[in-house]
């Protein structure tokens, strides 16, 4: 069993993944939609919105996200978040986890 608690003083972070367990996916969170355009060459990212609203941009398309929404970003899709509500929170799952798979991008 693995149990991790969220630290509300941290903007974002990672709970569990191959670096600290046998779990083959990375599971993290964010208290805000971080504006950092990037893509992943191999990994999928699955965003699970637990609170608030945000606007994601995936390959130039704006997507309005709200509580209980799921957003799956596929490999090679540039993405970022451009806005979020003060109460925003999401979990993110990266699969299959590949170290160093993140590529900073000027497009989103």
Give the H and E element order. EEEEEEEEEE
Number of helices, where a helix is a run of at least 4 consecutive DSSP H or I residues: 0
CATH superfamily descriptor: Jelly Rolls
Structural class: mainly beta
Proportion of residues in helical segments: under 10%
Strand order of the largest sheet: 1-2-9-4-7
Alpha-carbon distance between the termini?
A: 37 Å
The major beta sheet can be summarized as:
5 strands, antiparallel
CATH topology group: Jelly Rolls
Low-confidence stretches: none
Overview of the molecule:
- The chain has 108 residues and is mainly β.
- The protein has one domain: Jelly Rolls, CATH 2.60.120.
- The protein has no helices and ten strands.
- It has a five-stranded antiparallel β-sheet, with no helix packed on it. It has a three-stranded antiparallel β-sheet with strand order 6-5-8, with no helix packed on it. A two-stranded antiparallel sheet has the order 3-10.
- A hairpin with a 2-residue loop joins strand 5 and strand 6.
- The radius of gyration is 13 Å and the shape is globular.
């Amino acid at each position: 069993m693995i149990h991790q608690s969220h630290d509300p003083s941290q903007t974002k972070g990672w709970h569990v993944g191959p670096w600290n367990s046998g779990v083959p996916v990375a599971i993290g969170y964010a208290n805000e939609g971080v504006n950092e355009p990037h893509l992943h060459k191999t990994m999928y990212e699955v965003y699970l919105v637990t609170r608030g609203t945000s606007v994601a941009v995936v390959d130039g398309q704006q997507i309005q996200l709200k509580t209980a929404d799921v957003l799956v970003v596929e490999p090679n899709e540039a993405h970022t978040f451009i806005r979020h509500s003060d109460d925003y929170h999401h979990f993110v799952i990266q699969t299959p986890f590949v170290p160093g798979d993140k590529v900073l991008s000027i497009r989103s």
